[in-house]
Amino acid sequence: QVLLVESGGGLVQAGGSLRLSCAASTLGFGSYAMAWFRQAPGKEREFVAAISWKGGATYFADSVKGRFAISRDNTMATVSLQMDSLEPEDTAVYFCAERFRATVRSMVREPDGNAWGQGTQVTVSS
């Protein structure tokens, strides 16, 4: 069974930075597009960022564009989310997701059957 394990969350003041990491046990990780989603209290899970399976293309939600960066290491089977200039509105539980050879734009939709992990909590204080 595929495991996606998120880490790196925490409490940070507005304007601060955090770096999230997702470790995947997926066989053939290098053939999967990866994405980050987040879910704030009382809200539905929403798309944050995606990266293509080779890492050459990225796509971001408008709300994080210019502040967040996504990267991957296919040899380590990890994907990272660098979050800068954090805002209280970024407070949420962050999850990673994968889809086999998907385009980055298609990752805005939650992948069917994704093995959602526990997520990692990000709290931004004002």
Structural class: mainly beta
Strand order of the largest sheet: 2-10-9-4-5-6
Mean pLDDT: 95
Tally of separate helices: 0
Give the end-to-end Cα distance, rounded to a whole number of Å: 40 Å
- Rg for CA atoms: 13 Å
Report the principal-axis shape.
globular
- How would a crystallographer describe the biggest sheet? 6 strands, mixed
How large is the share of residues in beta strands?
Answer: over 45%
Secondary structure: helix percent: under 10%
In the predicted model, the low-confidence regions spanning at least 5 consecutive residues are none
Q: How would you describe the overall organization of this protein?
A:
- It is a single chain.
- The chain has no helices and 10 strands.
- The chain has 126 residues and is mainly beta.
- 34% of the residues are buried.
- The strands form 2 sheets. The protein has a 6-stranded mixed sheet with strand order 2-10-9-4-5-6, with no helix packed on it. A 4-stranded antiparallel sheet has the order 1-3-8-7, with no helix packed on it.
- The model has no long low-confidence stretch (mean pLDDT 95).
